[in-house]
From TrEMBL, chain B:
The protein's name: DUF5777 domain-containing protein
DUF5777 domain segment(s): 50-301
Signal sequence annotation: 1-25
Keywords per UniProt: Signal
Record bears the keyword Transcription: no
Listed InterPro entries: DUF5777 (IPR045916)
Domain of life, per lineage: Bacteria
Length: 183, 309
């Protein structure tokens, strides 16, 4: 009888430790901003409603954002961004799905350089990408920061010759996600 | 003892099942699916139903964004049928200069001065319903316009003013529009115009009009626009009749957007560019070549803090 309880308890312990490993982390108010700099014009926008999930078991990562949630200081640019460039009524969201290549010990605090490999979808076009960033483990929180460049032409985003000098060939994008344990 | 054992057994089973569910290796696409479950796609407001706050003469449901200033110059030449001596209208011009400002993203105020009748106009425009990207609720966007205008022409034998109140006119208008996909937007504008003193003595002071307008996108940056205002006073009859000299206003035109500007080029049988004038004072006829060609130029300035992200 005692042995049975023991086995049960051992099993229980093993499973608890396993479920600990498969913990998911969620970020509901992630930030993604972009900046285009040319001698003619600087364009910037910020989205503070990005959602993301990390599965710490296999390091998989998913990010989702609505194009319409990008806020520009100039609302006319925002309208043109949605209507003419990203066509947000046709392609309302942008997603990333991939994996963090490095093995990270999520149980210990620390800062790690990470590479996210996967697919990014913008303007309905998917591209394989390797994104570099840092992942900070801070108790129950994870903080993921990344900076990368995006070429509008890779995503079929048409830039008319009239404004070609006003929009950078490569747009610099920054993301910061703060995750909490998904309960 | 037995009950404890039983309970532990149940607990283990529960954790086992729960644990295995988690242990199951997740595909990254499942993770995106899970993200969709946690944070489902919300219905968004439809934007850019029209390129500008005007379809042609009349207002569209669009308002100027918060802390943005729209500087508008509207210009109409003379009529096409005014003959060679007048270079088919090019010798003449009427202009309205307007400054229009967004207090919030849905509330704007504006003022303008038309050289026609030396008339000042002030208006307030509020969008209280947004068309949404999905769901059956909110199939249309609805905006309200309230406007006052003041005729500052000298009093004359043909238009005698005995006091300043007689110079005022008032407009109330509801704009109801729907964007049908990317290319087509349609709008209806039930309108009431009240003139304290009419241009001709036999005209009705209060006009009841129904405007219909729309735009068809020809490319990402150009649209074809049309607009018609039907004055329904004669349908009501009984002392509401209009002076038969006046006509309904029909306008056709194009919007061309170039970065910070929107150019609107059009022809219309109205010389006036504000509701009181194009609904109330239009006398020319399309079929007789009583057409004014003209343009509106809209330049938007942002007074939002220039944040860099």
């Amino acid at each position: 009888m005692n042995r049975l309880i023991k086995t049960n308890l051992t099993l229980l312990l093993i499973i608890i430790s396993m479920t600990g490993y498969t913990q998911k982390y969620i970020c509901k108010n992630g930030e993604t901003s972009f900046f285009s700099e040319t001698p003619m014009e600087d364009i910037s926008a910020l989205n503070t409603k990005v959602v993301s999930l990390i599965n710490t078991e296999d390091g998989s990562l998913a990010v989702k954002m609505n194009i319409i949630d990008f806020e520009f200081p100039n609302k006319l640019m925002q309208e043109h961004f949605n209507e003419n460039y990203l066509e947000s009524e046709k392609y309302p969201k942008s997603v990333f799905s991939g994996k963090i290549l490095e093995k990270i010990d999520f149980s210990k605090d620390g800062k790690h350089k990470v590479t996210g490999q996967g697919n990014i979808v913008i303007h309905g076009q998917a591209q394989k990408v390797n994104l570099e960033g840092t992942l900070t483990v801070n108790g129950d929180q994870l903080i993921l920061e990344a900076a990368y460049l995006i070429k509008p032409e890779d995503y079929n985003i048409e830039i008319p010759s009239l404004v070609i000098t006003k929009i950078a060939k490569e747009i610099s994008v920054k993301s910061k996600f703060v995750y909490n344990k998904l309960s | 003892m037995k009950s404890v054992l039983k309970n532990t057994g149940k607990l283990t089973l529960f954790i086992l099942l729960f644990g295995f569910r988690h242990l199951h290796a997740q595909d990254v696409d499942d993770l995106l699916g899970e993200l969709d479950e946690i944070s489902p796609d919300q219905a968004q407001n439809i934007t850019a139903t029209f390129k500008s706050t005007r379809i042609i003469n009349g207002h569209s449901i669009e308002t100027v964004a918060k802390n943005h200033l729209d500087f508008r110059i509207s210009h109409r030449f003379g009529t096409l049928n005014s003959g060679y001596n007048n270079l088919f209208g090019l010798d003449e011009s009427r202009i309205r200069i307007g400054l229009e400002y967004g207090i919030t993203d849905d509330l704007m105020i504006g003022a303008g001065r038309s050289s026609y009748l030396k008339e000042y106009d002030y208006f307030l425009k509020y969008r209280f319903l947004h068309q949404k990207t999905k769901g059956l609720l909110n199939p249309v966007t609805v905006t309200l316009l309230v406007s006052v205008s003041t005729n500052t022409m000298d009093t004359s034998p043909t238009m005698q003013f005995f006091n300043n109140l007689e110079r005022q006119s008032y407009v109330g208008q509801l704009m109801i529009a729907r964007k049908f996909g990317e290319r087509l937007s349609l709008e209806v504008n039930p309108t009431v115009v009240h003139r304290n003193k009419t241009e001709t003595p036999i005209d009705a002071n209060t006009l009841y009009a129904m405007g219909v307008g729309g735009r068809l996108k020809l490319s990402k940056r150009t649209t074809f626009n049309a607009e018609y205002f039907y004055v329904a006073n004669n349908l009501i009859g009984n002392g509401f009749e209009r002076d038969p000299a006046f006509r309904n206003n029909l306008s056709l035109g194009f919007d061309i957007e170039t970065g910070g500007h929107v150019f609107q080029l059009h022809i219309s049988n109205s010389r006036g560019m504000i509701e009181k004038q194009f609904i109330g004072d239009t006398q020319d006829e399309w079929l007789k070549g009583g057409l004014y060609y003209g343009f509106n130029i809209s330049r938007i300035f942002s007074f939002d803090k220039k944040e860099k992200h």
